[in-house]
Specification:
Blueprint lengths: L12 H4 L8 H20 L9 H9 L3 H23 L3 H5 L3 H10 L5 H19 L27 H26 L9
């Protein structure tokens, strides 16, 4: 499916989940386990995407743990930011030596990244740092509603921690795809096809 929306705020989890609102919480978790990640890929990935190849999608979804997917997504975003820096800065090496967070702040301060993408990437960086430095970090405890792409979505509140983890895993993956698509639209020269 090709997305015609101009920015990722027009693409919503509500639209993606349309038609499955009446699923019970248990059925929703089963749906996430079996089908929803594939639906995200079909929904989020324009056929003409310059960024993602089938290999990228396979790489992300072949990872068994959310920890691996977060770290890999973080690497994709860092590479995207470095492409922007290389394309926009006369002396990119001075900026490239910075941390993910500092590069993001610099790009945002110069209006190379939208506020929504800035907020999303800050949260992804925060989650990545938690996973990288805390063996017991639990994505189920993260306040997933902090993502800008989820502000208008009625989220399900699961009691069981394992269900919260699966649900937050899916929503985090979805928000990552939205940010990738939005960054591609803001900067059409970005390419991850060779990675």
């Amino acid at each position: 499916m090709e997305i015609e929306a101009n920015n990722h705020s027009e693409i919503s989890v509500g639209f993606l989940l349309k038609g499955i609102d009446d699923l019970s919480k248990k059925e929703m978790i089963e749906f996430i386990d079996k089908e929803l990640h594939l639906k995200v890929v079909d929904f989020c990935l324009p056929k003409k995407s310059k960024i993602f190849s089938t290999n990228h999608v396979k790489m992300l979804f072949s990872k068994r743990s959310i920890r691996e997917r977060v770290i890999l997504s973080h690497l994709f975003f860092e590479n995207m930011m470095e492409e922007i820096i290389n394309n926009k800065f006369p002396k990119p090496e001075k900026v490239l030596d910075n941390t993910f967070s500092k590069k993001l702040d610099i790009l945002y301060s110069l209006d190379y990244i939208s506020n929504e993408n800035y907020q999303t990437l800050k949260l992804i960086n925060n989650i990545r740092n938690n996973f990288a430095h805390d063996l017991r970090y639990d994505i189920g405890k993260f306040q997933i509603e902090r993502f800008p792409g989820l502000k208008k979505v009625k989220l399900i509140n699961y009691k069981r921690q394992k269900d919260k983890e699966k649900y937050n895993d899916f929503l985090l993956t979805f928000c990552s795809f939205l940010a990738i698509i939005s960054l591609e639209r803001e900067h059409p020269f970005i390419r991850l096809m060779d990675y």
